[in-house]
Amino acid sequence: MRLVVNGTPHEVNVEEDMPLLWVLRDELGIKGPKYGCGISQCGACSVHIDGELVRSCSIAAMDVEGEVTTIEGLGTPDALHTVQQAWIDHQVAQCGYCQSGQIMAAAALLSENTEPTDQEIDDAMNANLCRCGTYPRIRAAVKAAAKQMKGA
Prior knowledge:
CATH topology of the largest domain: Ubiquitin-like (UB roll)
Distance between the termini: 44 Å
Shape: globular
Radius of gyration: 15 Å
Largest sheet: 3 strands, antiparallel
């Protein structure tokens, strides 16, 4: 099977039903997406497939059509993505376990809506669980990233 992950093509030989999460972590050594629940509820495993937010624990790698982007491929080699920088600026992470999924969800939201309301941010981000409860900082970081993306 051939997968393009973060712009790099990979040939992998895995079972047909192996979840994308395990291909990324165990076969390709990409550790940003985390195992949280295994049932597509927590968001720790979130990645983008052709820009769409996807829970990598619940999609078989063989069913992937398009390029996979993980937290490692979100920015460029020379610069963090706007959302990643906002996370740092607003000191969002506490334990950090959920943060790659949170950042991927925020980047997906802002790719479609650079002027989200508080409710739209909450709706998009509350689908990703944060046991540390950094939701106010998450919202502030999303707002800051949106403002930055708009050039304000």
